[in-house]
Write a structure and sequence with these properties.
Length: about 675
């Protein structure tokens, strides 16, 4: 144990004050379970004002929706326990399924709506006539906890979320600059895999953090569109830098990279210029230098020329993205001072649906939640245990809490362990402290030691996973039981039922839902291949496709590390897939402008679609045909009338050939048979 920092102590004090205020108001109003308000105040609490407000809004919305569902479901099936169990389990599963398809904190609304129905309904099935009163009381208690937490964390030494997000954004920009410097270095990237992993992780983390931005108290909340747009520019850098690295590596192998070294150094120096400093060059000068070094892509251009055409196109795109990034960062800086340019208000962000969504895994998670809830209900009905309502209730809660993990079992097991550790403290408060207290002031003094200490531990990432279930154990026991009539027998029964529900969740989730990192990694790769196959048939939104593939890279990287030396996974490279996909979208965009080459291009895209539809299976004959089709399309496009569309298509085709067949013999501008003739 170390002494709490100032921020940790402040968070703990504010959380405790909010919880006590909520508890006091709930008692004064005469709500039946006032400790629900206390527990909610801790659940909603966050170190920063923005996330506290957003969690408050989402939690209230979820609670209200869950309460409405309970009021509708319970009276309909009050006389049929089996149908009531099925209806509640299906509600939990449906809400969880939909929530998993929104990978932002907003998903909390539906997830909470699912298990809130169980929290309200299961304890009330013995007296369904009171379900409206119980649901209303829960909503009021939770609303009190939400309101008090929001009020205290927003008004008492509020910690703005904006500066933290801005610092994270600048950290991502520094990571991007570091990758640019490494990629353009004379000897290539020092540790390209680390650069890629850091930037992909930065982008996904920024997406999650930015959801809280509209609720923040700083001026940065007005820059949300600019921040989203900057995230998209960072996402666009990932395939560009990866392509540039690969092309430079290929050109070094044929001694053709030296002529680019001076320009690469200028680009690296320009992108590394700090704000406020005068750059040594300008974007216009860099574009002119790129054009001067780009070889003429005639019909006789060889493989080395085409690689340089591709490199030039990617360098120009990198300069354009960096220009946009610098402008957006200036907009954000002006916005924090309250002077956001008008144009920044109309920047369109990429939708959250552009992130990777796994409908199959969401369905499996929902099915596991339904099975766990039904199993708990069956056990409760079969045994007739008066306290057994807590079994399906806790099984539903745990099935939802950790549904985003590859393997929820270790997390639920940890929750069970720390809940068990909290039992003596819960018993002490419920059976010894509360009966002896006759004033609210004494109650505050009695609660202070445990809850202030837990508040500090919750504020620390290293101990959050242990302190939160411990706090849940204490506050949940006080919330779920009538503190005025509790005795040792009711406490033991209720505690055993809660622990049984947790144990049931471990058992059911372990049987039906637990998967490994390698399994999830394969699903991520297959999702990327399916999307590439679809690009062969239709044109996607390039920003959304790029955002989704970069998100998959961020999800895939840690799982590949956990999966270990599995040959099929180690050989996979989602960055290569991303580069190929973006090149395919460029071909689709310019295909109509290529005249007679359009037919060859269409046939090639169909072959690419079949290639990725077959993955991970390999077909040497089909690969040979695809390589021949690529070369024939390159020859056809090379012979087309010179235009910007032709230049774009040649760069994209060269990129696809290099990415799909890096070990193939160099492209020949005319077939070998014609040369021999």
């Amino acid at each position: 144990m170390k002494l709490p920092s100032t921020d940790e102590a402040l968070f703990s004090l504010k959380s405790f004050a909010a919880a006590m205020l909520a508890l006091y108001l709930a008692m004064r109003i005469g709500l039946p379970r006032p400790f629900w308000a206390l527990m909610t105040a801790y659940i909603v609490a966050a170190p920063f004002a923005g996330p506290t407000r957003s969690k408050a809004v989402y939690r209230f919305g979820g609670t209200l929706l869950g309460a409405l569902a309970t009021v509708l479901i319970v009276p309909l099936f009050a006389n049929s326990p089996e149908l009531l169990s099925l209806a509640l389990a299906l509600w939990v599963g449906a809400c969880l399924y939909v929530s998993l398809l929104d990978r932002t904190p907003r998903s909390y609304v539906l997830m909470l709506a699912g298990y809130t129905a169980g929290l309200i309904a299961f304890p009330a099935v013995h007296d369904p006539g009171t379900i409206f009163d119980i649901a209303l009381a829960r909503v009021e208690e939770i609303l009190l906890g939400i309101s008090c937490a929001t009020l205290v964390h927003s008004l008492v030494f509020p910690q703005e979320f904006g500066p933290v997000l801005l610092a994270r954004l600048d950290h991502a920009l520094r990571d991007a600059q570091a990758w640019i410097g490494d990629a353009l270095a004379p000897n290539g990237a020092v540790d390209a895999s680390l650069d890629r992993r850091k930037l992909a992780g930065d982008i996904t983390e920024l997406r999650m953090m930015a959801v809280h931005l509209p609720f923040d108290t700083s001026h940065l909340r007005w820059t949300a569109n600019a921040i989203h747009a900057l995230q998209e520019r960072l996402a666009a850098m990932v395939p560009l830098l990866s392509s540039i690295e690969d092309r430079l590596h290929a050109l070094r192998g044929v001694d053709a990279s030296a002529r680019w070294d001076a320009l690469l150094a200028d680009i690296a120096a320009w992108t590394g210029t700090r704000r406020g400093e005068t750059p040594q060059t300008t974007p216009a000068a860099l574009r002119a230098a790129i054009d001067a070094l780009t070889p003429a892509a005639s019909r006789h251009a060889d493989w080395r020329d085409l690689l340089q055409v591709n490199l030039a196109a990617r360098l120009r795109a990198l300069v354009d993205v960096c220009v946009d990034t610098q402008a957006l960062r200036r907009h954000i800086g002006a916005g924090t001072a309250g002077m956001l340019p008008q144009a920044a208000y109309h920047l369109p962000p990429v939708k959250p649906q552009a992130l990777h969504l796994d409908h199959g895994m969401a369905l499996v998670s929902a099915a596991a939640a339904v099975i766990a809830t039904l199993a708990g209900c069956a056990f409760w009905i079969a045994t007739g245990w008066p306290a057994g309502a807590a079994v399906p209730m806790m099984a539903a809660v745990m099935s939802c809490f950790f549904a985003t993990q590859d393997d929820p079992v270790p997390f639920i097991r940890g929750f069970l362990v720390w809940t068990i550790y909290s039992v003596p403290v819960s018993a002490f408060y419920l059976l010894a402290v509360l009966p002896a207290i006759h004033s609210f002031e004494m109650l505050v003094l009695a609660c202070a030691p445990a809850f202030l200490l837990l508040g500090v531990l919750i504020a620390r990432p290293a101990t959050f996973g242990k302190a939160m279930p411990f706090m849940f154990g204490i506050a949940g026991t006080l919330a779920l039981q009538d503190t005025n009539t509790a005795d040792a027998a009711s406490f033991i029964n209720a505690t055993l039922a809660q622990l049984a529900g947790l144990a049931l969740a471990v058992l059911v989730i372990g049987m039906f839902r637990s998967v490994g990192a390698a399994w999830t990694a394969r699903r991520l790769l297959r999702a990327g291949w399916r999307e590439l196959a679809q690009i062969g048939q239709r044109s996607p939104s390039v920003p959304e496709f790029s955002a989704r593939m970069v998100d998959r890279i961020a999800l895939l990287t840690p799982r590949l590390a956990l999966a270990g030396p599995q040959q099929d996974l180690q050989a996979a490279d989602a960055l290569v897939d991303l580069r190929i996909g973006l090149n395919m979208t460029q071909l689709r965009a310019v295909g109509a402008e290529l005249g007679r080459s359009q037919a060859a291009l269409g046939a090639l895209l169909e072959q690419l679609a079949r290639h990725f539809a077959m993955r991970p299976q390999a077909d040497a004959r089909a690969d040979a045909q695809l390589l021949a089709a690529l070369d024939n399309t390159l020859r056809s496009v090379s012979a087309a009338v010179d235009s910007q569309a032709r230049q774009t298509a040649l760069a994209a085709l060269a990129g696809i050939r290099r990415d799909l067949f890096p070990q193939a013999a160099p492209y020949e501008p005319t077939p070998l048979l014609d040369k021999e003739t």
